[in-house]
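Hi support team,

I submitted a single chain yesterday and got back a structure, but I'm not sure I'm reading the token output correctly. Could someone confirm the output below corresponds to the sequence I sent? I've pasted both exactly as they appear in my results page.

Thanks,
R.
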Amino acid sequence: MSSNLTRAFVVVVAIALILIAVTLGIKVVLPATASSSGSPQLATAAYNSFQVAVNESGSVVPASVENLNFAVGGTIASIGVNVGQRVSMGTTLATLQNGAAMSAVAQAEANLSAAQAKLSAAQNPLTPAESTSLETVLSNSEQVLSQTVASVQQTASIDAQNVQSDETALQSVQSEFNSANCSSSANSSSTLCQSYSTQMDQDQRQLTLDQERSQSDAAAGSLRESEAQGQVNAAQAALSAASTPNPSLISEAQAQVNSANGALQQAQSRLVEYSLTSPVKGIVLSINGQVGENVTGAPTATQTLPGTTTPLSSVAPNVAVSQLPFIVIGQPSRLVVGFSFPSANIGQVQVGQKVLITSQSVSQLNLSGKIMAISGAPINVSGVPSYFATVAMDSSKGLSWGMSVGVSVLVSKVTSVLAIPISAVFTVGGVPRVNVWNGKSAVETTVTLGAQGLTLVQVTSGLAKGQQVELASNQGFAQAGLP
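Hi R., thanks for writing in. Yes, this is the structure output for that exact sequence:
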């Protein structure tokens, strides 16, 4: 066995195991005499058949656990749960000091705001004031053009009226000249005809002047309109050029926004890593740290019970591990029993063997199961090379995680061998001994043992059939049972 059974444990489990043995058809060596005041309780060495068992102690643990660590290293700021507490999925279990991470998020947010402002400026290059100023220039230019066109049209209209008036006056004098028959040589020298001729010359000169003035005004007006239209065109071009986004600048600004947004998401994800949340609904099985301690954030590197995700430390605290998970969350809907046994017994303990489970604290506990997995290599437990095994229970009624139980692996059966109760054996310096009763007193005797069962152990030398031995309750030794 991995450790000596205490007398109290032997006495408690013996009753339960005797019942088991009877059920299995094992002949039990009963005490030769009932215990009475001052009288030793004895058992007689006799030939018996019994089920051989490897007896160890084990622990009840969940078959499925979550081994949790922070994603980053840092100093523990808070632990919000206790061992044994039930938690829901998403429950915050603990946090790290995150001042630097929060500052990084704030800086990333500021950088994103600046990049977004630059993109907006690239997409809308004119400020409201600049846009208003350019629009005012355009409006004024358009107003000047309108006024110029109106002025030119008015001048053209006046010039046309003057030419028309000149032409009418000339035609009137011409008509009178013709009526007076001034074109004949006889009348051409008359005073009246001379007066008509002079008036006609004056009207013709005035018509010519007004026609020339009309042409000149038309040319000047066209130039004025062209200049005014040019100012309008220039104002429109200036407004269009100033308000048209530069694709190159927009592309550059958009790239900066994308980069800043990615940096913000990364900073926010980093901040989340400073909180540890439960990925499942379960019970907190262990917390390996306290507020103010530093954690590395390294991945969990711990050995587990074969066939489960439960750390070996839950079964054997003395197992050396490179790193314990910071928090272990168990899902106790399915319980198993884990135990270790010396490497010397590896030939006896095999997957599929039947196992009986008893408990010192629960006297009526009597459950069965089978070994579901065994570790592939020995592991040092308190300096002793040992294997670990996991028992799948037929029923977990009466079990709770963390409970210590007795584990008996039924490995074979022996027939007609000299046997005594296990509780009659004690060790001195690792050597098994019994107290042989000679009728008056007990004589300490060294024995050699063979196969061990649930309650009986084979004696291969040191005792003969019919000899009586004291049971543990009368031996007065601190340790009893097999090593």
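A quick pointer for reading it: DSSP finds five helices and 23 strands in the chain. Let us know if anything else looks off.

Best,
Support desk
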